[in-house]
Every structure is written in C-alpha cells, then in structure tokens.
Amino acid sequence: MHEMVKGANVALASLSDNIGSVLVSLEWASQSGEGDADVSVLLLGESGRVRTDADFYFYNNPVAADGSVELLGKKPTGEGSEDRIVFDLTAVQPGVERIVVAASRYGEARFDELDGLQVKLADAAGEDLLRFPIDDPGSVSAFIFGELYRRQEDWKFRAVGQGYDTGLAGLATDFGVDIDDDAPVHGSGESLGDGDDALLAATFEPPAVDVFAGREPDRPAEAPAPADETPGQAVLEAIPAQRDSGRPPAPTARTRRPRTAKKKVTLPRKGKKTLAENDSWNEARLFPVSAVKSDRDRETRATSVLLSVMSQVPEFGRRLTAAFGAPAGRMDTFTEVALPHGDSPRRPDGVIRIERAGKLWTALVETKTNGNPLKAEQVQAYMDIAARRGYEAVITLSNDVILEGSPLVDVRIDKRRKHKVALWHLSWAEVAHQAQMLIRHEGVGNSAHAWLLQELLHYLQHDNSGCHGFQNMGAAWVPVRNGIDDETLCQGDARALEVVESWERLVRQVCLGLGGELGQKVLPVRRAARGSDPGRRRVLMADQLCLQGRLQAELRIDGTPGVLALGADLRTGKLRTSIEFPAPAEGYPLTWAKRLIRKLADAPADLHIETLTDTETGGPRGTLERLRPEPGDLIPKGGAQITGFRLSLLKSMGSSRGNAESGFIRSVDDAVHRFYSTVVIHLDRPLARKGEPAAA
Fold first, then answer.
1. Is 436 a residue whose pLDDT tops 70?
2. CB–CB of 145/102 below 8 Å?
3. Is the C-alpha dihedral spanning 626, 629, 631, 636 positive or negative?
4. Are strands 9-11 and 21-29 parallel, antiparallel or unpaired?
5. d(CA 432, CA 453)
C-alpha cells in the first residue's frame, strides 16, 4: 500500500489497472466510543468552485443522479468507524476537474478529539492502494482529507489535510455552495453565523408519500412556487436538533421548492386492514415459501428472489453492489448458469452483470441458507473461473456475518494473473437491513418498487426461507459455558476465542436489525485503547471471558445521549443492558432527578437507576418503582457532585446456543430491543444542553 504524507500526490493508474471505480474510506476512533463525523463530497469545476449547489453531497444528499458519487455510510472497524464513498470515475462529467473529500463534526466537537484519523483508497477489486494518516488535525470542526483531480485523461489523488474552524458551513461556502447566513435555525431565532458549528441539511427530495393513506405533505395548491426558484436547487439550513434526531427538516417558507422532482415512496409498518374472514387465511404472496422443502430448494429460491428484485428495483440493486466496486448502470441477473471448469461445468447460484458505457461488470454469486457454511473449494473454483473469464468479483451470501480480519473462507489468489478478482460477502441480515431502510425510511422510486421490496422482506423473514441471519453460537458455546460454571476454563482455550467471534457476529446482526427498524445508524463501538488489531482484540476478550465469565459490547445509536452497553454474565445467566449519560450543564440536581423520572414514566418498573458521582463509592441507586414517589433519593449525601446517570435492565438469558425461543441469540436480540423501546427512546436527546434552560 502506498503511504502518503500531507501535500503529496500520486497517479492512480500507477497503483492499479482497475480504477474505473474507487472506494474512499475515512476512518477514526475515540477513547469514549462516541466520537463521530459526517462525510461530504464537493465536485469542483475549472474555477475551483461547485458548478451548482447540487455538486455538494452529504448525509441528506448521498447519491449523484449519474452514479458518479455515492455515500455508503458508516461501518465499524477494529478501532472505531469507517465512512465509505464510492466514486465511479468513468461517470464523472467532463466539467468536473476536482473532487474534494471532507468530513465535519457538529456541536462543539473537534477533530483533535478523534484517534487514528486516516483516509484510504481501494480499487474496484477491493485492494487497498493508498493510505494517508493524519497525526494532528487541530482543533477544527471540518476537515478536508484529500481530493481526486484530473490530469489530462488520468486521475490523481492529493493528500490535503486542511482543517476549517468554521465547520461544514464555512467549508461549503469557500467552494461556492450557496448558504444563506441569515437563515433561521428551526425552533429558534438564532441565525447561522461563523461561530456556529451546526450541521447542514438540504431539501433535495420532497417528503415521502404514504401510498396507503394517500397523504402527501406538500405545498398547498393555492401557493405557487416563486418564479426564480429552479428544480434541484439545494437550500441549506442549520438544523442541529433535527440532524441529531435523524429526522428530515420540516419545510418552511424558505425551504419550499416546486415539486417537480420524482417523489419517493415509503411503506408504513402496518399495511391496510385485511378483508379475510379469520386469521387462518394466508395472504397471497409474490414469493411463496410453502413449497420450499430442502436446503437446495431454499438456496435456489432465495437466490432467484433476491436477484430478481435487485434487477427490478435499481435503488436496491445499487445499494447492495456499490460497495463491491460495481458501476451504476443497467443490471441483469441470472441463476443456475453453467460455466466450463475442467472436465465438468460449474454452476454458480447466480450471476450479476451491470452494463455502463458499453462495458460489463460481472460477479458470480454463491448462496447458502439455513446456516449452511460456505465451502472453500467451491468458492475457490468460482474465483478461478472469474479470473479466467475476466469477471470482476465473486459474491458469497449466507447467514453468517463476516468479521474484520477473519475471512469466512480461505482462497488462494494467483498473483501472477494480471486480472484481479475481488471476493466479497453479504449476510442475509444485511440484505434485510437494506430493504428495510429503503421501504421504511428512505423511499424508492415508485409504489411498485416499494411493494417488491416488501414482498422480498416478508420472504426473508419467514421461518421457512432459511435466510434468518446468524443464529447459532457454534459448537464451542456449551463447553465454554460448562467450563465457566465449574471453573475449569483456562486462558488461551481456543473455544473461548470461538465464542468471542460468535458474540461479535451476533452484536453486528443486532445492530443491523435495530438500525433497519429505526432508520438510524447503529454501530458496534470499538475502543481505540483496546488496539487496532482485530485478532489481538478478540484474544483479550477471550481472556476476559475465561477470567470473569462475561461477554461485553457497546452500541452507538444516532440521536441517543450515550452508548448502549450490553453484557452477558455466563456465571449468573443474566443479560444487562444499560446506558450512561452526563448530567445536564445547568439547573439543580433535584430538578434533574425529577425530570428524569418524568421522562421514564412508561419505562419498566424494574429499571435500575444509578447516580454517578465524582467519588469512588458512587451515588445512590434504586429501581424506578421505588424512586417514582421520591426522586430526591437520587441526590447523593455529603455534597458529592453528580456527573451523570446510569440506567440498567436485567434479563435472564437463554440457555441454548441457537435462535429458538429459549436460545441465547433470541434473548440478546429481545433484550436490546426491549431496552431501546422502553427506556432509550425516552432519552432521544440529552436531558439538557449547554445554554438550554432546565425543565421547570
């Protein structure tokens, strides 16, 4: 991998022959696990400024219409988070000379609070080409990591490393994005000034349409658009509170635009009322599961169902293939294709072909369902076939969740071959997550596409489909639990490491499920202090399991005041879910306690509440049921200063290793969802922010 320093540049063609599309990754971590940033991209013309406001891409405008830019969002890494962007360099319009890659933080957060700041660039085969580490970004709220720029017909990358103390607004303004500095912040009389570090949101898309109820929040018919407004114009506002909550900005008189853009469709969680006489009637489905009998039937049916929906719903197909280096173009999918290989042909479960500008991108697909493992020799054969035929990728799809630094199958790569084939993996849980995000939260092009995704999701979630995601803790689970019970499990036991890997897969799957339901980012937290090597981190966790009998994880959920901690105590058979958040910046302790109890009016009575103090002994604690009549019992005696609060729920965990009703996996999933839906949802913001008056 090519290592870069600030100010250096390199021609991409000198690093790889496969740079039609590239994947740029921005990475960071934080000691607290709560550090985060948002990626943005600006396309610049010859003048060094954006041609129009539509050349500015960020969380509220993540995809270019021509497919040249797509923000894929965050994923966890060994140290923290990685935010990824796919650039289809063959689709970048001739008028674009430079592509600036930046990120910003909101509130009073600064980049010097993050660790391991770096940018990496990979080619279409997934091979890392360059890395630019940033040691001292400075106390800035926006930061330019690097830029892609043209030199004649070639693309080059420059390591920039420049910070902005005026936030995303200052960065965007410098490059010509039109921001109205006098635009009021929603819900306040304040305006966006140089000292404001608020995030920006743009109304590129109109509100989603409820196709069942026929409701569409829109401009009244008697209020025509002003004549000087043009479709697609980006209007930017400072709305930090709405950005934190994950909700789109409410339309105002300043943000209304003529509704000429194509509307997006989302489906409600519950469909229209059924006309069935009784509950025993089964609704007719596009993808029935009643005839699926064997594992082979499940694999064939699941592959055909998924690939057909990918080809018919462009937003969904693009969502699943963009991270694999695929271009944005016309997609065709096939099943049971015979390809020559030695004496007998091989039949991959599926083939994906995408055409753009007369060029083909091809991937072979190997599918497993019902918990069946991938076979190394089978995947190896498809890698060899793809290399000989000039295909770009092999995609494996199974219930298993891949871990960083721990491939599901080991394959041999012939480095003598000039043509490189990338090996990628998808879990069924991730497929379901992406379908949920589109039909429940982000929207698709029309109601037919939304219905197709709804049918796909129903199929994947049916008990008979075999596409349930990770659902078995493995053969080591029972021996490890027995070893903890009788205190015979020793450090270094390989079975403990297997359990830790299964635990990480389970946590990742829980994040996908919860994120799909909420429409928000839910990511496992990786503490920078535990090291960047994922293998070493798992060994330390395995040693902790042997010594303490506990598995632990942390989840970061957008819009919540703290990190959700999850712990499984194998000695007591208890699951603990908890969240810590700091005390308000202003007000009185008794006011804080009363306000907290009021917020938790609908929480479970057995919720544990603990006051955190600046002393080693800690503060008062008790159940919500006991504290409801006397919130003042949360105030510590002796004048100790309150630093925050901790809320916890305990639940018995399942004993079996699988996903049955009594299983450990089901109990973990239920515990996280119950804690969020009954406790965390009431704390969608910190109790009070600096400068916000305390509740009366």
1. yes
2. yes
3. negative
4. unpaired
5. 9
CA distance 452 to 447: 9
Are the beta carbons of 162 and 144 closer than 8 angstroms? Answer: yes
Taking 3-state DSSP, the helix, strand and coil percentages for the chain, each rounded to the nearest 5, stand at 25, 25, 45
Q: Hey, how many other C-beta atoms are within 10 angstroms of the C-beta on 492?
A: 10
What's the gap between Cα 559 and its chain centre?
Answer: 14
Residue 283 burial by CB count (10 A; 0-12/13-18/19+): exposed, middle or buried? exposed
Beta strands in 373-421 (DSSP E): 393-398
Contact (CB, 8 A) for 621 and 638: no
Of 520, 470, 475, 477, which is closest to residue 666 (Cα–Cα)? 470
Angle (CA) 134-135-136 rounded to 5° is 100
Amino acid at 241: A
Per-residue pLDDT averaged across 482-492, rounded?
90
pLDDT tens digits, one per residue of 274-306: 777 777 787 788 888 877 778 888 899 999 999
Distance between CA atoms of residues 171 and 173, nearest Å: 6
Would you say 513 and 433 are in contact if contact means Cβ atoms under 8 Å apart? Answer: yes
For residue range 541-556, list pLDDT tens digits in order. Answer: 999 999 999 999 999 9
CA distances from 5 to 1, 9, 148, 151, 523 (A): 13, 9, 15, 20, 30
Please name every residue paired with 577 in a beta bridge, in sequence order, or none if there are none. 566, 649
The residue assigned the tokens 């991998």 is 1
Which of 505, 474, 643, 664 has the alpha carbon at shortest distance from 573? Answer: 664
Print burial letters for 161-184: b (CB count within 10 Å at least 16), e (below 16): bbbbebbbbbbbbebbbebeeebb
Q: Hey, what are 556's tokens?
A: 């970061």
Give 569's strand partners: 550, 574
Nearest to 397 by CA among 416, 359, 425: 425
- Which two three-digit tokens encode residue 477? 């689970």
Contact 564, 680 (CB under 8 A): yes
What is the phi/psi pair of residue 398, to 5°? -155, 180
Euclidean distance between CA atoms 196 and 237, whole angstroms: 12
| CB-count burial class (<10 Å; 0-12, 13-18, 19+) for 407 | middle
What tokens does 60 get? 């509220």
| Exposed e or buried b per residue across 209-221, where buried means at least 16 C-beta atoms within 10 angstroms of its C-beta | bebeeeeeeeeee
* pTM of the model as a whole: 0.77
* Rounded Cα gap, residues 310 and 327, in angstroms: 14
pLDDT-based confidence at 79, cuts 50/70/90? low
Asked if 352 and 45 count as a contact pair (C-beta separation under 8 A), the reply is no
